[in-house]
Design goal:
mainly alpha; 4 helices
């Protein structure tokens, strides 16, 4: 009976550690997505790619600040992620957003593609072995 208690304790510890990891990673993912959204909106507004204006135009200094914030959020995921696929997808998404912020290729469709890749990788890291189900027409994977 002693070994059963040890196995149960080990399993409980594993469950708790996994939940703590997911909570930490979820926090840094949400932070990254918040910054990414602001960078994308500012870059698309600057390029006219969203059909709207930013209430007087996006200031270059603000885009630089957002890009710096984006790279810091990317670094947090790089440190917290278990998988290389999430690290790589985060870097690719941040890189494309930084390009858009500089005025290089602020194409919304391209950004949606790297965002979908990022979301797939984040889901895989948070819930290994589970398939992410997306709505028909979304760019992510479907089961």
């Amino acid at each position: 009976m002693g070994s059963w208690g040890t196995l149960a304790s080990a399993r409980q510890l594993e469950v708790e550690q996994s939940a703590a990891y997911r909570a930490e990673l979820k926090d840094v993912i949400l932070k990254f997505l918040g910054v990414a959204s602001r960078v994308q909106k500012a870059a698309l507004a600057r390029s006219g790619g969203d059909g709207g204006q930013d209430g007087g135009g996006v200031q270059e200094g603000r885009l630089d600040e957002l890009a710096e914030e984006l790279w810091l959020a990317q670094a947090e995921i790089d440190l917290a992620a278990r998988t290389e696929s999430l690290r790589g997808a985060t870097y690719r998404y941040a890189f494309r957003l930084a390009e858009a912020a500089r005025g290089d290729d602020a194409d919304a469709a391209t950004l949606r593609g790297v965002q979908a890749e990022f979301m797939d990788a984040a889901y895989d890291d948070l819930w290994p072995g589970r398939q992410r189900v997306t709505a028909p027409g979304d760019l992510g994977r479907n089961t």
